[in-house]
Design goal:
It is built from 4 helices and no strands. By secondary structure, the protein is mainly α. Helix 2 packs antiparallel against helix 3.
Length: 152
Amino acid sequence: MSSDEGGGASAGLGAGAAGRGLWVEEPARRRRMPDSVRTSAVRAVLIVAVTLTQAAITFFLTLTGSWLALPMGLGAIAGTIVATWGVLDVWITRQTWNQRYGVLSEPSSTARGRRREARRASRTAREARKATAGRIPREDGPLAASGRYSAR
């Protein structure tokens, strides 16, 4: 048996496997959740798991007629309320994060066009003001009382 046929410590380390590492990075399909959202999601999953376990135990205690069925049932109801809050917390935290940090600062093509039109309009207005560079006499200025600088 040669070293290429298998067996031994060097089995599988042929020419093709030598260039490839053990860990191959693949690009993520989705972006990673923000830390605050991920924390609330983990909390919600744990609460829901405990509540479902509690509900299953309550069901089996009810079938056996145990006295623990009533306190466990009340606990399961309270757990359901807390689990609902946990899931809502994930949703609210995600929405809050998106409102605070989710806006990309890249101008869209629409915004770029609007800014270009606004610059063009302000440039036109500035040029129009430069064309009428002569002073316009004011009738309500400090020298208007003398009558020399009126617009008559």
